[in-house]
Design a protein that fits this description.
- By secondary structure, the chain is mainly α.
- It has one domain (2-49).
- Helix content is 36%, strand content 8%.
- It contains two helices and two strands; from the N terminus they run βαβα.
- The chain has helices at residues 21-24, 36-49, and strands spanning 10-11, 33-34.
- The protein has a two-stranded antiparallel sheet.
- The protein is globular, with a radius of gyration of 12 Å.
């Protein structure tokens, strides 16, 4: 999607506590992330809920 082009996402996790929801879902676990891709995903979630 153009909305996500050239965007970045950084997610923090601690060794041994990787959240597999990051693999299986586009939005689960985003509370531990930051970046403009996170913002774009949030906009998509809000838009799709309307």
């Amino acid at each position: 999607m153009i909305l996500w082009k050239a965007k970045s996402l950084i997610c923090q996790y601690y060794s041994g506590e990787f959240d597999s929801r990051w693999i299986d879902s586009i939005s689960d676990g985003l509370e531990y992330c930051r970046g403009d891709l996170k913002d774009a995903i949030g906009e998509l979630i809000i838009f799709s809920a309307q």
